[in-house]
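Table 4 source record.
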Amino acid sequence: MSVKAQNLVWGVKRRQIVRDVSLNVSEGETIGLIGPNGSGKSSLLRLLAGLKSPHSGLVAINDRDIAKVPRRALAREIAFVHQNAATDTNVTVRDVVRLGRTPHRSALSGWTDADEVAVTTALERVDMTSLSRQAWQTLSGGERQRVHIARALAQDPKVMFLDEPTNHLDIHHQIEILRLVRDLDLTSVIALHDLNLAAMFCDRIMILEGGALRACGTPQTVLTEDLIRDVFRTDSEVKHDNGALHIRFRPNSSL
């Protein structure tokens, strides 16, 4: 499914956090959303997913205004993965993933074979089947993120929004999670901090600055030394090697 936004504006009281943002994500694309802290990445993601309502502008999924789509129906098409979702409840991995089936079930409906297949398939896709009966509290950070993605997959969505899914993870788990998301047959928009990871795993990158869309394009076209200096206030060396892009930051050159 495609995702389109037209002239999105949102803020708190008199402070505008998202400023006139328009974008177009094609079906099957993996889009990286990057920008400094406070640039509006998380707020924009929530607007795109329908978790917040814009003050003006609209969001369309497959050319349908999501404001006119019932919430349960929207939840069957869109999944949102929070950066630090947690629970103190004593539940198993499978219990957490089962929550993803909520949009497909009425209050009085029983658990169906289709629900069971969806949960099992989701666990398989994130390689967590062997830990399905393990207690949530015993999981590592990377394992928990995989479970969050499995819960989202159990919704059987066509579009997935992820808010800094690699936050606080070691580099091995960061790469593992992003490779997993990229290889899914979904349209994905991912808020990220690490510019090298965004370049490695995203088809296109959208850069936010002060709530506005500063640049949008392939990593090779938007991640330039000049833009990194202007937006992130640090000097860097950008190298292109056989189609791959590598950014080396200069630690003592912060502007």
